[in-house]
Design a protein that fits this description.
Length: 157
């Protein structure tokens, strides 16, 4: 698979990005109004984005990842006001505390708190709820049974 090498332009600015973490994927949304000439190079340890907006402002981002990603199962999609990048984690069920390897966060990256979820404890929370439900059903079937109801009135004579 031959990818085009994206060269850093002389004059450019970084596109604003918001991101959130899921069990198997990390999603990064670059906010660019009416993007065009979009080029995305997703590598195992980083990604490079190049594009222009409707007024021909040039955007260029290099984003080294916190952990490696699977490049064959990572995708990008261009919309009217953003570029969505879906990155498949190499290690699923492993939380990324930040998007980049370096803890110092650039000003153009922020967390998408509207889509953020604390998925690490979801399985345990669901299991605890299921165990409580199972205990309740068990208690209902073993205790407080009382006498069986008289069902003679259900005969259809």
């Amino acid at each position: 698979m031959n990818k085009i090498k994206i060269v850093r332009p002389e004059e450019s600015q970084p596109a604003r990005a918001i991101w959130y973490d899921r069990k198997k994927y990390v999603t990064v949304n670059f906010i660019v109004h009416k993007p065009k000439d979009v080029q995305v190079d997703i590598q195992p340890d980083k990604m490079i984005l190049y594009c222009k907006n409707d007024t021909d402002d040039v955007f260029y981002n290099v984003l080294p990842f916190y952990e490696n990603v699977q490049i064959n199962d990572s995708r990008e999609r261009v919309y009217d006001r953003s570029i969505h990048i879906l990155l498949r984690k190499l290690k699923p069920d492993y939380s990324w505390p930040h998007l980049q390897k370096d803890e110092a966060r650039p000003s153009w990256i922020s967390v998408d708190f509207d889509n953020w979820r604390d998925w690490e404890n979801e399985v345990e929370d669901g299991k605890e709820e299921f165990d409580m439900y199972a205990d309740m059903i068990k208690e209902m079937t073993t205790k407080n049974k009382g006498e069986a109801p008289d069902m003679d009135d259900l005969d259809s004579d």
